[in-house]
Amino acid sequence: MHKFLRYGLLGLLVVALALVRFFEHELFSDPLLEFYSSEYSYSEPPEFNTMQVIGTTSWRFLINSILSLAIIWLAFPSPKTILFSLAFFGFAYVILTSLFWFFITDIEAENYLVIFYIRRFLIQPIFVIILLPAFYYQKTIVKEK
Questions:
Q1: If you average pLDDT over residues 27-55, what whole number do you get?
Q2: Under 8 Å between Cβ of 28 and 53
Q3: CB neighbours of 92 closer than 8 A, spacing ≥ 6?
Q4: What percent of the chain has pLDDT above 90?
Q5: pTM for the full model?
Q6: Would you place residue 88 in the very low, low, confident or very high pLDDT band (cuts 50, 70, 90)?
Q7: Which of these, 1, 85, 98, 109, is most buried using a 10 Å CB contact count?
Q8: Measured between alpha carbons, how far is 114 from 54 in angstroms, rounded to an integer?
Q9: Alpha-carbon distance 28 to 52, whole Å?
Q10: What's the confidence (pLDDT) of residue 145?
Q11: 94, HSE (Cβ side, Cα atoms, 13 Å)
Protein backbone atom coordinates (compact mmCIF):
# COMPACT_ATOMS: atom_id res chain seq x y z
CA MET A 1 0.00 0.00 0.00
CA HIS A 2 1.26 3.45 -0.87
CA LYS A 3 2.55 5.40 2.16
CA PHE A 4 0.32 8.40 1.49
CA LEU A 5 -2.79 6.21 1.33
CA ARG A 6 -1.77 4.34 4.48
CA TYR A 7 -1.24 7.55 6.47
CA GLY A 8 -4.50 9.00 5.14
CA LEU A 9 -6.43 5.91 6.21
CA LEU A 10 -4.72 5.97 9.60
CA GLY A 11 -5.80 9.57 10.03
CA LEU A 12 -9.38 8.74 9.06
CA LEU A 13 -9.50 5.88 11.54
CA VAL A 14 -8.20 8.11 14.35
CA VAL A 15 -10.87 10.66 13.44
CA ALA A 16 -13.46 7.85 13.51
CA LEU A 17 -12.35 6.95 17.05
CA ALA A 18 -12.69 10.60 18.05
CA LEU A 19 -16.17 10.74 16.48
CA VAL A 20 -17.30 7.72 18.50
CA ARG A 21 -16.28 9.62 21.61
CA PHE A 22 -17.77 12.92 20.41
CA PHE A 23 -21.17 11.39 19.59
CA GLU A 24 -21.28 8.99 22.54
CA HIS A 25 -24.53 10.43 23.92
CA GLU A 26 -26.30 10.06 20.58
CA LEU A 27 -24.89 6.62 19.73
CA PHE A 28 -25.12 4.86 23.09
CA SER A 29 -27.87 4.93 25.70
CA ASP A 30 -25.72 4.47 28.76
CA PRO A 31 -27.03 5.81 32.10
CA LEU A 32 -23.52 5.58 33.55
CA LEU A 33 -22.31 8.26 31.11
CA GLU A 34 -24.38 10.87 32.92
CA PHE A 35 -23.64 9.39 36.35
CA TYR A 36 -19.87 9.57 35.93
CA SER A 37 -19.96 13.02 34.34
CA SER A 38 -21.52 14.41 37.54
CA GLU A 39 -20.22 14.38 41.11
CA TYR A 40 -20.84 10.64 41.39
CA SER A 41 -19.02 10.01 44.65
CA TYR A 42 -21.81 11.73 46.61
CA SER A 43 -24.83 10.52 44.68
CA GLU A 44 -26.87 7.39 44.27
CA PRO A 45 -26.35 5.36 41.08
CA PRO A 46 -29.11 5.64 38.50
CA GLU A 47 -31.63 2.88 37.98
CA PHE A 48 -30.58 0.83 34.96
CA ASN A 49 -31.03 -2.51 33.27
CA THR A 50 -27.77 -4.41 33.80
CA MET A 51 -28.02 -6.31 30.51
CA GLN A 52 -28.70 -3.09 28.60
CA VAL A 53 -25.61 -1.44 30.13
CA ILE A 54 -23.49 -4.52 29.38
CA GLY A 55 -24.86 -4.59 25.82
CA THR A 56 -24.21 -0.89 25.20
CA THR A 57 -20.72 -1.14 26.67
CA SER A 58 -20.00 -4.24 24.58
CA TRP A 59 -21.26 -2.53 21.42
CA ARG A 60 -18.97 0.43 22.06
CA PHE A 61 -16.04 -1.89 22.81
CA LEU A 62 -16.69 -3.71 19.52
CA ILE A 63 -16.75 -0.47 17.49
CA ASN A 64 -13.57 0.82 19.15
CA SER A 65 -11.89 -2.57 18.76
CA ILE A 66 -12.65 -2.80 15.04
CA LEU A 67 -11.27 0.70 14.47
CA SER A 68 -8.25 -0.04 16.68
CA LEU A 69 -7.50 -3.31 14.89
CA ALA A 70 -7.70 -1.50 11.55
CA ILE A 71 -5.22 1.10 12.84
CA ILE A 72 -2.86 -1.64 14.03
CA TRP A 73 -3.18 -3.46 10.70
CA LEU A 74 -2.34 -0.31 8.74
CA ALA A 75 0.58 0.55 11.02
CA PHE A 76 1.98 -2.99 11.21
CA PRO A 77 0.58 -5.18 8.40
CA SER A 78 1.71 -8.51 9.79
CA PRO A 79 -0.63 -11.48 10.30
CA LYS A 80 1.09 -12.30 13.62
CA THR A 81 0.53 -8.76 14.87
CA ILE A 82 -3.16 -8.84 13.95
CA LEU A 83 -3.69 -12.28 15.49
CA PHE A 84 -1.98 -11.21 18.70
CA SER A 85 -4.02 -8.00 18.81
CA LEU A 86 -7.26 -9.87 18.17
CA ALA A 87 -6.45 -12.35 20.95
CA PHE A 88 -5.46 -9.49 23.26
CA PHE A 89 -8.71 -7.61 22.61
CA GLY A 90 -10.76 -10.79 23.06
CA PHE A 91 -9.03 -11.72 26.30
CA ALA A 92 -9.37 -8.16 27.63
CA TYR A 93 -13.06 -8.10 26.71
CA VAL A 94 -13.84 -11.34 28.54
CA ILE A 95 -11.93 -10.37 31.69
CA LEU A 96 -13.08 -6.75 31.85
CA THR A 97 -16.72 -7.49 31.02
CA SER A 98 -16.84 -10.21 33.67
CA LEU A 99 -15.45 -7.81 36.27
CA PHE A 100 -17.77 -5.03 35.10
CA TRP A 101 -20.79 -7.32 35.38
CA PHE A 102 -19.71 -8.49 38.83
CA PHE A 103 -19.41 -4.94 40.17
CA ILE A 104 -22.51 -3.37 38.61
CA THR A 105 -24.94 -6.14 39.59
CA ASP A 106 -24.67 -5.01 43.20
CA ILE A 107 -23.35 -1.48 42.84
CA GLU A 108 -21.93 -0.03 46.05
CA ALA A 109 -20.50 3.43 46.71
CA GLU A 110 -17.06 2.03 47.56
CA ASN A 111 -16.92 0.38 44.11
CA TYR A 112 -17.76 3.49 42.06
CA LEU A 113 -14.12 4.11 41.20
CA VAL A 114 -13.45 0.46 40.32
CA ILE A 115 -16.48 0.44 38.02
CA PHE A 116 -15.36 3.76 36.52
CA TYR A 117 -11.92 2.43 35.57
CA ILE A 118 -13.08 -0.95 34.32
CA ARG A 119 -15.70 0.82 32.23
CA ARG A 120 -13.07 3.28 30.98
CA PHE A 121 -10.97 0.42 29.59
CA LEU A 122 -14.07 -0.98 27.90
CA ILE A 123 -15.41 2.20 26.30
CA GLN A 124 -12.21 4.03 25.37
CA PRO A 125 -9.60 2.91 22.80
CA ILE A 126 -6.87 2.64 25.42
CA PHE A 127 -5.51 -0.66 24.14
CA VAL A 128 -4.50 0.79 20.77
CA ILE A 129 -2.55 3.47 22.63
CA ILE A 130 -0.75 0.70 24.54
CA LEU A 131 -0.22 -1.70 21.64
CA LEU A 132 1.06 0.70 18.97
CA PRO A 133 4.21 1.74 20.89
CA ALA A 134 4.75 -1.87 21.96
CA PHE A 135 4.66 -3.09 18.35
CA TYR A 136 6.89 -0.23 17.23
CA TYR A 137 9.41 -1.09 19.95
CA GLN A 138 9.29 -4.75 18.99
CA LYS A 139 9.77 -3.88 15.32
CA THR A 140 12.82 -1.71 16.06
CA ILE A 141 14.36 -4.36 18.33
CA VAL A 142 13.91 -7.05 15.69
CA LYS A 143 15.38 -4.74 13.03
CA GLU A 144 18.48 -4.14 15.18
CA LYS A 145 19.18 -7.87 15.60
A1: 78
A2: no
A3: 121, 127
A4: 62
A5: 0.88
A6: very high
A7: 85
A8: 16
A9: 10
A10: 65
A11: 5
